Amino acid sequence: MKVVLSEIEAGFSIWGRLQRLWKKARPEKPVPDIVEKFLMVFQIHGVYGNQIPRFFGHGLSIADIQVREKLLEKIDDRMLDDVCDLFAVRREWFDGVSDKIYPTHDFYKNPKGFGLLIENIISKNAGNRLSGCLLAVEDSKYPDPALLILQEEIGGIGEVPIYRFHICNNWSFSYWRSRADLVACIAQAENNGVYIHGVYQDRAYIKRLGGGLELLGWKDEGVHGIRGKIWYPEDMLYDPELYLKDVGSFDGGAELVLALERWLKWADLGLMKTENIPDPSIDRFQEKLEEICR
Questions:
Q1: pLDDT digits (tens, 9 = 90+) for 275-286
Q2: What is the CA radius of gyration of the chain?
Q3: Distance between CA 176 and CA 261 in Å, rounded?
Q4: Distance CA 14, CA 16 (A)
Q5: pLDDT tens-digit readout, 78-116
Q6: 130-136 and 229-231: which strand pairing?
Q7: Which of 9, 28, 153, 219 has the highest Cβ tally under 10 A?
């Protein structure tokens, strides 16, 4: 029995040493506490320390912001919930139970849902501007991602605008079905007066932002602060050649046919029509489909 116990103790001892070596080899990053997250989420969105009481209210004073212990005493559940509503941040992130900072929206196969999201945002915030940015990989190959970020102006400090962001992910840019659904979303944005500009970025950057794991800010520039080659997503509403650019052409080009058919399907349902895009665009897409099918 003593032999068995000594072997068990030796095993635990070895395991303990291995754990210590593992931790030393891979030091953990310090996890921000709730006060650090509170200050961080404001600063990243463009509201700096002493500006928080003026912008956010809730009985906070500049003195509270200056002293960590005083701020911790003031922060309560209601205040955290209001911060989450203000910046569209997940409460689970504040509570430390999830690394995911922002909720993400998935409108693949559901472009009508994207239109409802825009209408809902505008109905609650009619006085401020809504715009967006579509990030994609230039010369995209399957399954390179695309990411649509809506930017909602929620106020300002002086002449500096403050934004809230809405992440719409799960787009595979070169996949025919995803491409068509994404373009239908762009059309609905246009129909609601929401301009979406395009930026080519690398896949790692797009994946990182698309996971909702990184605080978004870009200071007072908003999504226009995202650097990269500029392109114009709305062109895919009237130019079939651009619409089909980089769409996967496996299986003898079947994806090109499917992409055009799905574009025309959404057009028949009224999702591709905007005030700025003339009806003859539908004819151009129909002609391109006939050309490929010959």
A1: 665 566 889 999
A2: 25
A3: 10
A4: 5
A5: 999 999 999 999 999 999 999 999 999 999 999 999 999
A6: unpaired
A7: 153
